[in-house]
Amino acid sequence: MRKTMKFLAVVLALLFVATFALAACQHKCQHVCPTCGKCTSDCTDPACADKCPGHEDGGDEDKYPTDGSVYNDFKIGGTVILGSTTQLGGDFRFTGLGQSSANASDQDIKGLTSGYSTMELDQNGSYVWNETAVASHEEEVIDVSDGVQNLKITIKINEGLKMSGGTEVTAANYLAYILAFSSPVGTAGLQYNRAGQSFVGYDAFAAYDGTNEGVEGATKVFSGLRLIDEYTFSIEIAGPDYYPYYYADSSGAVSPYDLGLVLGEGVEVKDDGQGAYLTDAWYAKTGETYDKKAHLTSARFDIDTYEYTGPYTVSSWNETSAEATLKINTNFAGNFEGQKPHIETIVYRLALEETQFAQLQNGELDVLAGLTGGDTVRQALSIVSEGGFKETHYDRAGYGKLQFNCDFSPTMFTEVRQAIAYSLDREEFANTFTGGYGSVTHGPYSVNFDAYLDNEDALEANLNTYAVSSTKARQVLEEGGWIYNSDGSTPYDASKGNGIRYKKLSPSEYGPDNINQTYKAVSVTDGKEYKTEQIGGEYYMPLAVNWLSSEDNPVSDLLTTMLLEGTALKEIGMLLTKTTVDFVKLQGELSRIPSYGYDGTPVYGMYNLATGWNTAQYDYSYNWIGNDNPEMYEAWFSYSSNYLSDPLDVTFSWWDTENQGLTFDEAAAKAGGADKLGMNYLSFAMVYSVDPGDVEEYNKWFYQYMIRWNELLPDIPLYSNIYYDVYNADILNFKTSPFFGPADAILYCGSASAQG
């Protein structure tokens, strides 16, 4: 049965709040214009001196679009204050680069200040060609050898595209980022060199360090990138690793950057006929350190020196208040359908959940986005009913979750993650948290996805719902070896030792750098000590899960009530501890980022976050690379959200080229059954073993991916909800969707009070 409640798109652990500050009548009045929120001319209250300018009969709604369609006749003006309960981190230039995840608020700023990508996401989450930037594009399939094919895409951009400072955008602006962050200099500066990994010649180019031309194939020329002329370039996608590819139609998406931002001074993009390259200054060193390392680390947070390509520029950034101010870029030629900005100023600031409605009504905020939960939604709709505000709502393409680190601590064991799931009433959690405006999912999917809808009946019949059961929780723990007491005795007895279960570790379970040998619980409140015990040369790990939570988080509050303060975990012999930090610190611990406060030793195995999709594409290749391939594991470690290594990928490996390119039925037969296919294999095969357009074949892989994920349970989905956006009626043409948030929608808006 299809769920009666669907879900909507978001990438945050916390609610997103956006605001628009405008003057409006502050006293209680029954004569309020639904368009701008000011008092109409028939209001006689002397408190209202600032009257509606003359659209009390809904004239603006008649004159201007309301469906978010393209409209470039607004007069420029107004200030929008976009707020978010996710604190800005200031990483606006290369948001999330070299990290396992990106701050969603920083992504909003990057989206508002970046533009002219050759392909952009539309309101439905699909990639479309950007005709504002692209004059023409051609695709050519090239036969290489032995059935291998490459895909070459030649793109000619329009002349006259301007960055914020007036500099013209050329083909070199599109190639610079790929070249820079496919080189060892990119690794040295921002821990990233994979920008061009899907293109022909990447390995040879990535191996070139400025001194080793021709050594073991290294070369300064990137053969799969061509700078053809000032406005034309090409990219060649390498088969068979990256072509055929199920989403090959999106391979032409390339974004331009200010050359100074990416390359610094003295470096040029060149092509002498064999491929694009960067001039020698890019590879210059002082001692053993690349000179450009300092430039990249500095440029990442430099909001002033370099130009912007998008509809807005960052005019100021206050790190103390975590507030950014953006100004309109009048040089911006438009997005994929020609839409230009008309709101003059955007302020993006931290919003606290407990004050959001007061701020809305006081005129401090004008858009509250992503509202969910019964009480919250009802309060929002009540404000709308009073006049001066409007609402739009949509299904979420995402879900709130418990997320686990799966490479150390008790949470590295599937049985522990399953036991936690069996101990939490997720139906009650979802109903309580969403207030009836949402439901529970049992895997990493959105009901907005076609692949889910095509597999819906089979998934609902076969996914484990992990209905609450202390019996099953104990059973999976015992099957996983959690049968010891703190003194190494067995069977487990809650009256012995410190009262929780222990597991005897094998050497393969010691974790990275043997960290599990010294693992211990933190933020303990009962005065006891819970740590790995060494007894008779064996190591016994405590069933103590360290949970890291962010501040002022209602999901954390409900989890505290249901899990931390409840009895379910204690009854199965598990301890849960809670540590609370700000979101930046949490992100540092989760993604193991030293600059965000991570000290080099992982401590926390569980986090409560949320995830979502801003695109309808579903590709998780490179997210599940296991430690069975140490070189790839290390290279792509930052791309893994959970650091999970699936044992099935050892016995039937994607890295065995004979296993690549198989149909689902062929792979299942060769592996000994579909249930013998691991996460890494499934994630690669579902996009790299399926031809573009073969929906039926893709759906088979999608289904099995969900089944395996549901068994390993790297996350526990908690809720998925319907989101409401409430906005001041002065904002014209505001329309959001699961794949098109307020930071996207605001480009299409105007301010009624600025129209005169």
The tally of beta strands, per DSSP, is: 27
CATH C-level class of the domain at 119-299 is Alpha Beta
Residue-averaged pLDDT, rounded? Answer: 91
Q: Could you list the spans in which at least 5 consecutive residues all have pLDDT below 50?
A: 1-31
What share of residues is helical? 10-25%
* Class based on secondary structure composition and strand pairing: alpha+beta
Domain Solute-binding protein family: 150-489
GO molecular function, one term: peptide transmembrane transporter activity
Pfam family, one: SBP_bac_5
Keywords: Signal, Transport
Commentary on this structure:
This protein is an alpha+beta fold and 756 residues long. Among the domains are: 119-299, Dipeptide-binding Protein, Domain 1 (Dipeptide-binding Protein, domain 1); 483-542, no CATH class; 645-712, no CATH class. It is built from 22 helices and 27 strands. A hairpin with a 4-residue loop joins β8 (269-271) and β9 (276-278). α10 (414-422) packs antiparallel against α13. The longest helix has 18 residues, at 695-712. Residues 150-489 form the Solute-binding protein family domain. This is Solute-binding protein family 5 domain-containing protein. Belongs to the bacterial solute-binding protein 5 family.
